[in-house]
Amino acid sequence: MTVTESQIRDYGFDEMANAGFYIAFRIEFLLPEFEYNDLPRPWVHKYTQQGLLMMDPVLRWVYCNVGSIRWSEIDISDTAGVLREAARYDLNFGAAISIRDEQDASIRSFGNFCRSDREFEPSEIKELERRLELLFSDLTAPDDVTEAETEVLAAIRDGELIKEIAFKLSISEGAVKQRLRSAKDKLGARTTPHAVSLAVGYGLL
Length: 205
Fold this sequence. Notes:
Elements lengths: L4 H5 L3 H4 L3 E9 L2 E7 L3 H9 L7 H8 L2 E4 L11 H6 L5 E8 L7 E8 L6 H18 L7 H11 L4 H8 L3 H15 L4 H10 L4
Antiparallel strand pairs: 1-2, 1-5, 3-4, 4-5
Helix pairs in contact: 7-9, 7-10, 8-9, 9-10
């Protein structure tokens, strides 16, 4: 799903992770369907240029575990000094949260949250986990939107009027409106344009 920066901000991760955060959704073959990187740009550049991904003890923990942990509690050797280097960019303390996909255990999502000033409290990690699960739930397309409903949403996206859609599909205008209402309910949309936007973001159209 396409998510804007302002939408991510609505979850308040930056309020809890004052040094930055990184989120990856549904990783398969090392590639996430969606990712959001709020870590310091100079650190991201260094991390990428020096190929620290495969040596990062936090990511090694994330890919082998489910749950949450402080960086300081990870019992994996950091031979490349990744966390020491991260501290040079005020990434002094962190918490990692790894969530396995309910339908496919080989797919996981995770969040990596950083602070410059202190360790995360257990209650804060639980709250980050709650917000992360909420975000991932919002990113997951509903599986009960029917082909008939997406057909109507696609027509609305293309600028067709209710009566034009009814004529094209050989159904009543009332049936078109009912399909729209049903699609909005399933997508959690407030309006028809919102439903179309969500359907596009989920890749349903």
